Amino acid sequence: MDATIQKIKGTSIHEILDNDAFSSVIAAIGTGIPLPGGLAQARTFLDHMRHGKIIIVTDATAEGRYILTQTVALFYRFMNPLFGAKRVYRAVSDLLPSMGTDEFAAKVMKSASRRVV
Question: Which class in CATH covers the domain with range 13-116?
Answer without folding.
Answer: alpha beta
